[in-house]
């Protein structure tokens, strides 16, 4: 392609980027250099160990005359479902274009499935599926006809294209309606067809750009479940973008937050949401304890359990909910025993996870203030 | 009893969920995808593989295109003519309105759909690239026009042989006619696709193609007629450069032994013919360049 900056010279001088020649992104294993060690490691295990990086970028920048879409973005994304979160204009779509080898980076480099985006665009696109954010389906053909055509565009022979289309449409949940023209489909069904065309050639990675856009809550949940299945059942890695943080924490193994073209945060969803599990506890008042909540707070503090000051203001019954920091299984037992000991009725005890949204307000997430018994 | 029927139904309608299967078969890559897109677009131009409704117009136009040839052949055989009443090279000039209609209907169908419904990014996120897409679409449109314009010539040729006309003479004329319609197909196909690709609205595309073909031809032939009447036959051959049909007419007059349809048969000679050929070449390459540019902007 014309106009691509000549960065090939950099590659040879950068030993960090060993994945260029490897089928997947890889870390150098001892067994790679030592033939004796190689015999000891079973083949399957070695294969598993080698799949470390699905997408890797290093100080990737994309500048347009007026705006900088990506600014020295360095990412390392492994297999699984990865959420790419950012506000509109954060650089998500630009990143996808670069990863598909369709737009040259201004500087830096990127590799997908171990292939350099600057030189192996076609090879990448053969093994990657892409679902655009916008509507992209012609209304006058059926889902089957359309997906068969797209399968052939991915290089599948005619018979395989038809078989894979039937399979894929069934897996995304389209049955009899697949023979009807797409024009009559609901938004949810159209989204499924878009997902099917991205999966029909059995890619190793799919890039899903805002797949839940325009869906109602039920459709959203179904789509998120489907995306989860793409990885767990189909074994395909997923990069899914959204500007909604909440829905990605349920779906993704890993969440990358970018803002203004720079990396804001990258960590697994368990880091985001489960390092400290917060329990919401609500109890009844009894005749012996007219203010059950206050009594319980005092008792729990005495038992050495940390209580959070943050109460969800504005919600009904907010004053009656205690936020308890659970450090492990035993916390649940302590809360149960304390409540029972006081003779209170336990209305609820549920996990209240931190939300990814808190990365945008670090002051709220950081240092939860400990409450002293009032 | 109800248990029995459900038992039977269960047996016949059992669905085996075999789970997800990976695809291990061949991936035929870019060249195959380009060929597939070409054949899909070519078939699509005649409504094949599309709804019954979209077959109607191209098939009618194809029949209209072939009907005069069949009549000519019938008359020639019945009256034992020594030569065909219409030259092979002249046929496309006479039936240019039909060719124009076909192009106006099918060029937008071929490219505007992908643009309007934004399917283009789906192609470019696959192994095929911009050049493959443009070549496949251009090739398919030119081939569709060639099928349309060459079919009646084949009918004429077969008919002339049945009527036992001079074999060498007819074969030469047929060959010249085929080269001429091939040139016309490539030229018209390119111009039609450019106009269709510049607007995602199908209606505008249809109007633009018809307008370009008829207005330029109308203007050129009118001015040529005026020039003939006012006694300046020298400009006639240069005026022909300004419309697609007269361009093809000029090239075949200069190089393919055709009789010019210009007033007073004042077509270009070999010298001016080179200019005609260069203009045709420039238009074909220009169409290709514009299409490439157009798809650079819309890709993803």
TrEMBL record, chain B:
The answer to whether UniProt assigns keyword Transport to this entry is no
Q: Does the keyword Ribosomal protein apply?
A: no
Q: Which domain of life is it from?
A: Bacteria
Q: Which UniProt keywords apply?
A: Membrane, Transmembrane, Transmembrane helix
Q: Where are the transmembrane segments?
A: 56-79, 91-112, 133-158, 178-198, 205-228, 270-291
This chain belongs to the protein called: ABC transporter permease
| Upper classification of the organism | Bacteria, Bacillati, Actinomycetota, Actinomycetes, Kitasatosporales
């Amino acid at each position: 392609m014309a106009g691509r900056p000549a960065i090939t010279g950099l590659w040879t001088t950068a030993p960090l980027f060993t994945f260029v020649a490897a089928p997947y992104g890889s870390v150098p294993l001892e067994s790679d250099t030592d033939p004796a060690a190689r015999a000891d490691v079973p083949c399957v295990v070695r294969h598993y160990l080698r799949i470390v990086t699905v997408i890797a970028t290093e100080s990737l920048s994309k500048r347009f005359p007026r705006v900088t879409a990506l600014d020295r973005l360095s990412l390392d994304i492994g297999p699984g479902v990865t959420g790419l979160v950012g506000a509109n204009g954060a650089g998500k779509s630009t990143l996808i274009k670069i990863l598909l080898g369709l737009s040259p980076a201004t500087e830096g480099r990127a590799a997908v499935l171990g292939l350099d985006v600057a030189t192996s665009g076609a090879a990448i696109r053969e093994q990657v599926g892409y679902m655009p954010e916008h509507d992209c389906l012609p209304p006058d053909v059926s889902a089957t006809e359309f997906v068969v055509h797209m399968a052939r565009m991915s290089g599948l022979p005619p018979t395989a294209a038809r078989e894979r289309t039937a399979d894929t449409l069934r897996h995304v949940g389209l049955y009899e309606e697949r023979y009807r023209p797409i024009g009559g489909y609901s938004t949810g069904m159209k989204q499924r067809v878009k997902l099917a065309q991205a999966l029909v050639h059995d890619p190793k990675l799919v890039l899903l750009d805002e797949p839940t856009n325009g869906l109602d809550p039920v459709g959203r949940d179904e789509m998120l479940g489907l995306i989860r299945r793409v990885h767990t059942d189909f074994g395909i890695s997923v990069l899914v973008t959204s500007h909604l943080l909440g829905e990605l924490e349920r779906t993704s193994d890993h969440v990358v937050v970018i803002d203004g073209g720079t990396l804001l945060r990258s960590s697994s969803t368990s880091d985001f949401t489960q390092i400290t599990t917060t329990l919401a506890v609500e109890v009844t008042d009894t005749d012996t304890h007219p203010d059950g909540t206050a009594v319980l707070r005092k008792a729990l503090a005495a038992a050495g359990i940390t209580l959070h000051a943050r109460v969800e203001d504005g919600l009904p019954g907010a004053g009656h909910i205690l936020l308890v920091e659970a450090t492990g299984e035993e916390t649940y037992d302590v809360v149960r025993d304390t409540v029972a000991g006081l003779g209170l009725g336990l209305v609820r005890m549920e996990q209240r996870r931190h939300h990814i949204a808190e990365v945008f307000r670090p002051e709220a997430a950081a240092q939860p203030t400990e409450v002293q018994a009032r | 009893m109800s248990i029995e029927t459900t038992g039977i139904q269960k047996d016949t309608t059992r669905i085996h969920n075999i789970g997800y299967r990976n695809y291990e078969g061949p991936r035929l890559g870019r060249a195959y995808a380009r060929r597939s897109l070409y054949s899909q677009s070519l078939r699509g131009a005649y409504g094949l593989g599309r709804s019954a409704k979209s077959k109607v117009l191209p098939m009618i136009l194809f029949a209209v295109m072939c009907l005069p040839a069949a009549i000519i052949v019938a008359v020639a055989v019945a009256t034992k003519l020594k030569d065909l009443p219409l030259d092979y090279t002249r046929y496309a000039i006479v039936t240019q309105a039909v060719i124009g209609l076909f192009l106006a209907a099918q060029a937008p169908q071929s490219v505007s759909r992908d643009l309007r419904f934004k399917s283009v990014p789906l192609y470019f996120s696959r192994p095929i690239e911009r050049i493959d897409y443009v070549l496949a679409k251009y090739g398919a449109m030119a081939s569709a026009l060639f099928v349309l314009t060459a079919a009646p010539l084949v009918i004429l040729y077969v008919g002339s042989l049945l009527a036992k006309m001079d074999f060498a003479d007819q074969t030469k004329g047929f060959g010249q006619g085929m080269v001429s319609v091939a040139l016309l197909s490539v030229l018209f196909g390119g111009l039609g696709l450019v106009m269709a690709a510049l607007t995602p609205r199908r209606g505008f595309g249809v109007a633009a193609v018809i307008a370009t073909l008829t207005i330029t031809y109308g203007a050129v032939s009118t001015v040529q007629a005026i020039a003939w009447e006012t006694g300046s036959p020298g400009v006639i051959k240069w005026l022909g450069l300004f419309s697609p049909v007269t361009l093809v007419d000029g090239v075949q007059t200069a190089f393919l032994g055709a009789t010019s349809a210009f007033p007073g048969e004042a077509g270009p000679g070999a010298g001016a013919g080179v200019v005609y050929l260069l203009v045709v070449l420039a238009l074909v390459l220009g169409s290709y360049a514009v299409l490439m540019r157009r798809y650079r902007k819309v890709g993803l």
